[in-house]
């Protein structure tokens, strides 16, 4: 039962498992670091929205007034990179690459806190290294990688707060508030990462209260095994089983208050440089700007609908160049080379690893379906649906995924596939969980399916890697990777 689980009851990792976790984490970080920093300055031009964000960051260093439709924290970080390395492709990109290399580490931490399984944690981190959109967003002076990093780090702090004793719990909550304040200070849609955890807490409290009412009336049958198949008495205590130890004050007063303070303070340098608006008027103007942005192809060629993102129907072309030889410097100056005359294409697409994304979508459907079944069991039938590891995995991943995707259904302005980045993170974790479950099966055919899915994800990453890193392709090889007309 949730209310009886000990806050300090999680099992200590065996030394060998802890060693594997540490070594694997370092290895995956080095892999992520290498992928992000390799050839970072190859394209000596501003790519996609770098024409805004890199220039805005430089404006902070030159004290040039300007208006931007997003809060300033992301540009501050890009400006820090420029201040240290200069206004050049390496200078305005390296900070993104460094922060982006930490995303798999956050994934490992969250997956381990969620499951207490070393294998699940490392596999989730590995799959995050194989995702193309996280890689591309980390290699250019864009904002989305900061939003995701701060928001996920805030969730990890809340996970750690659950099992922390005494004053340390409040310290983790304050740190989470700082990080959630930072994610909203990059872009407003970072609120989804905060909303997901709050929604999960409300569901857990609501289920617990409903169960107590049924038990008092004798309508709750609590001795029947759950659909997940685990016996609560044998289940290792998990942090989320103690979620209710976080109080209403912690999550709905202290944490938002800290986040609001961070959001307000980060505006001070911007307002000192741009005194034309006060804080309230500036936020109103930002909201008005987003309200005026239209939707559809007439607004931007790469606008896409929120329900198309899980299937990756409309990636965004960030960079495209044609060349006669591999020796030509990029970008190529002079008249544009006709398509028919080009011998090599350089393309960078904001797209996920298609194989990984499609399998992640299937895994999410499984997680959401099983989660709804377990919720029904928790409400009306069985204690094991509340105690089992699988139940908490379904709840955490399903709620956070929907909290970061469904709000886009109410947004009328043009949106892009990179807005799916926070939700896709939980899809990747769902796939990692599903693959491990396949590999743990007693049936050889099921285990082989798990290895096949993992192998296809690796193969997909290698196949589309030229689109992620902007590697040269012959026209034939370029077309071979464009599976749908909507990808062009």
From TrEMBL:
Enzyme's top EC category: transferase
Ranges where the ArnT-like N-terminal domain occurs: 88-204
GO CC, alphabetical: endomembrane system; plasma membrane
Enzyme Commission designation: 2.4.1.-
Coiled coil location: none
Entry keyword set: Cell membrane, Glycosyltransferase, Membrane, Transferase, Transmembrane, Transmembrane helix
Membrane topology annotation: Multi-pass membrane protein
Record Pfam families: PMT, PMT_4TMC
InterPro entries the record matches: ArnT-like_N, PMT-like, PMT_4TMC
GO MF terms, alphabetically ordered: dolichyl-phosphate-mannose-protein mannosyltransferase activity
Membrane-spanning residues: 18-38, 94-112, 119-136, 142-164, 171-188, 194-214, 248-268, 355-381, 393-411, 417-439, 451-473
Location of the Protein O-mannosyl-transferase C-terminal four TM domain: 278-487
Principal place of residence: membrane
Range of residues in the leader sequence: none
Compartment(s) of residence: Cell membrane; Endomembrane system
Pathway: Protein modification; protein glycosylation
Similarity field: Belongs to the glycosyltransferase 39 family.
Function: Protein O-mannosyltransferase that catalyzes the transfer of a single mannose residue from a polyprenol phospho-mannosyl lipidic donor to the hydroxyl group of selected serine and threonine residues in acceptor proteins.
Record protein name field: Polyprenol-phosphate-mannose--protein mannosyltransferase
Organism: Lyngbya confervoides BDU141951
